[in-house]
Each structure stands twice: as structure tokens, then as C-alpha cells.
Design brief:
By secondary structure, this protein is mainly α. The chain is built from four helices and two strands. The protein is 39% helix and 4% strand.
Length: 89
Amino acid sequence: MAWRMVMRRVPSKSLTIVGDVAQTGSAAGARSWGEMLDRYAKDRWREERLTVNYRTPAEIMAVAAGVLATVAPDEQAPESVREEAWARA
């Protein structure tokens, strides 16, 4: 319903959408961008994956990458560009 509301307010269907479908809060949530967007903009959308992580330190991302490898082995964790000072000490 939320996607329907957004698409009704943007008749051109020209949007930049950033998000992570793996973080859905609902068991009924979409499992892919195609599942969400094909009905509104079939053959007119593209997915770009972000591979660099500027927010999460490398030490935390290493743990998260291990979890990701277990729950979604086909996905690749982004590479962090910073470390925490406490980890270097």
C-alpha cells in the first residue's frame, strides 16, 4: 500500500530510492526491488549496489559480514573505509 501511495504522488515514476529490502519489518515484505517496482515501472528501473561503507567501522563490519555469509551466502558485504581508534590501540 505504501508503494502505491508513493507512485500515485509521482506520476513520472522518476525516483531515486535507497534502501535494503533485507531489513523489511514485515514477513509479507518484498524480497527484491523487482518485486516492489516491476508493477509500477517495469523495464524502467535499475538497481545499483553500494559496495563501500562509510558509516560502520571495519571491526563491526567484519562481524556483520560473518552473519551475512550465514543468512544470505549469495550477498556480499560492503567494504568499510574506516577503523575505530580503540581497535588500533
